[in-house]
Amino acid sequence: MLSILLLGLLFSMGECAPEQVHLAFHGNYSVMNVVWTTFSSDSSTVLYGTSPNSLKYTVVGTQKAWRTGSITRYSHRALMDGLQPSTQYCDISYDLHTDDGRRGDKFMNEFEPLLSRIPYMVVAGNHENDGENFTNFQERFWMPHNGYHDNQFYSFDLGPVHWVALSTEYYGFYTTVGKGPVLTQYSWLNNDLAASFLYNAENLSMNFLNLATNKKSASANRHKTPWIVSYLHRPFYCSAASSDDCSSYDNSLIRVGYEDIPGLEYPFLKYGVDLGFWGHMHFYERFYPVANKQYWSSVSSQCKLLPQRSRPNYGYTVLTVANSTHIHIEQISIDLDEAVVDDFWLSKDPGFVATDEMRYVQLVYSAPEQVHLSFRGNYSEMNVVWTTFDKDNSTLLYGSSPSSLTFSVEGSEKAWKTGGILRYTHEATMTDLLPSTTYWYRIGKRSFQFKTLPANPESFRVCVFGDLGYEHGHSTASIIRNGMAGMFDFIIHIAYDLHSDAGRTGDKFMNVLEPVISRNAVSNRQRTPWIVSYLHRPFYCSSKGNNDCSDSDSALIRVGDSKKPGLEEVFLKYRLDVGFWGHKHFYERFYPVANGTYWNGGCHSSGTFDKHPTPFSAKRTNQYGYTIMTVANATHIHLEQISIDLDEAVVDDLWLRKDIGSVTSEREA
């Protein structure tokens, strides 16, 4: 039986009205983060409950003033806890800094109806670099803590999937920020993935093209989360024409590193990452299983490299985690009326580890906007983040009834500035949330609701997209409509330009998404057998003439160099199952790949990456769309790429499957 949680946000009329309300996972199923924005200082109190007439829970979050350009905003964050599983609770664009952060305000308010209902998980991309230390990105969102508190990288478990989000921007901008962030993230990634199994991964071979499964590689830890899925912005590989993103130093830096900068591909292979999502390229491309440019393309005895389709369609990807052995992926084309233009299943044996329309908000500066949720790290907590343009309280009330918001949390407020606009990001955490329970929460006088996931869910669906944007958000309407209809349980956005126009792009985008991200949100490999990562810059991509796929930055991110560690080594070491990348403006799916060595269905073959398409590019399209990932159980994850250009048709569909407890071996390519 399902119950409903209603959440209310307390605010005074005018500039303190909460907007841009969104949810995020906090780290466990009983907690949900709520984040919203006001334009003047206000309380960060959230009321929530399972009935709109009984918001008996109250939580007072935090408020933080921040400024972009001339606009001051207040971000409020509150944490609803004690949430019950399977219970309904009431309740990324790019260049968010543009126009003093107004773009970010518009974006967050457009999406607020969605993001205030389901969790909205993000990673930074190159356009999040606002010249102010990623202020718009850091202040608008509240991702699970990793000890560094900058939202750039983190992980969380959901059912049979371990999700890993990484920043490729540490690599892309290392010449200005230094190599310290790269090394910090790389060390964290190795530790995070190492916790996914109990055995000594250093003794394993890196050549995953060897089909003989090492049964001893299956660990008790990964038995719980057999899938590892990653998402990051810049791609490891891509096939874009005349794009340095696919062949530049940056691309190589991300994937394989350089000198003391380690790349990301090695840890992905070492620890058996099953799936990766990338952004950045403005098209859809799917790759065959690939590792260091070696791949599988078919089950035949001979590999024949064929050109892959590439469409200029807007869209997004839908990933359905079916179970512990199967994942379904569909690419939805917005240009083709949401037709599925790519559809595939990922499967593995048990134990094997191997919208242009926006919702205009009247200018009331302290009214909370851009409300969104995000995971905090466990099922009983949820982060809430919102924005105001004046200093305001960060009080969040929540409860299981809209009329009984019995819990109150006082969140935090931080002022930050982009251009001439000062904004205030408010963050509050709802705690003690019960699984499968609907909660209502209130920020000021704006109320929202969301439903927590079941305790330790075996199956759930995720929407993944990158570089969506506000002004060119062809997939936005489809994502909001399907998200509000309950088609997916949380969102992963792999970055884009929220700082543009002094942050106005981010404001617009977050407000557009607010209806869904304010309601949707929702390591030990035995408990979470899947590890899924997401980061902005890709390890691999196939853009033609794009340095992001082959330059030193790409290598730095993936493998690092003598001074900076890459990320791939950690991914491989700790057997990440799936990774999502952004940065490239197309969809591309790869075969299982490790350091350029890949599987493509049984053939052992190698190819040069500068050939287009990349030989381990299993599927790619430049149609607008997004990805839906369905975690079916501990052994199956389903991925779908949705094409907006093709009327939300599934243009890519695959299952990921592995045996219970197994981890993809680290082998020499």
Short description:
The chain is mainly β. The chain contains 12 helices and 43 strands. The protein has one domain (6-659).
Give a written overview of the molecule.
The protein has 669 residues and is mainly beta. It contains 12 helices and 43 strands. The strands form 8 sheets. It has a 15-stranded mixed beta sheet that branches. Strand 20 and strand 21 (339-350) form a beta hairpin. The longest helix is centred in the N-terminal third of the chain and has 15 residues, at 180-194.
Helical/strand content category: mainly beta
The parts where pLDDT drops under 50 for at least 5 residues are 1-14, 87-94, 198-220, 298-309, 355-365, 600-611, 665-669
* Morphology call: globular
Q: What amount of the residues lies in strands?
A: 35-45%
Give keywords.
669 residues, 15-stranded mixed β-sheet, nine-stranded mixed β-sheet, disordered N terminus, disordered C terminus
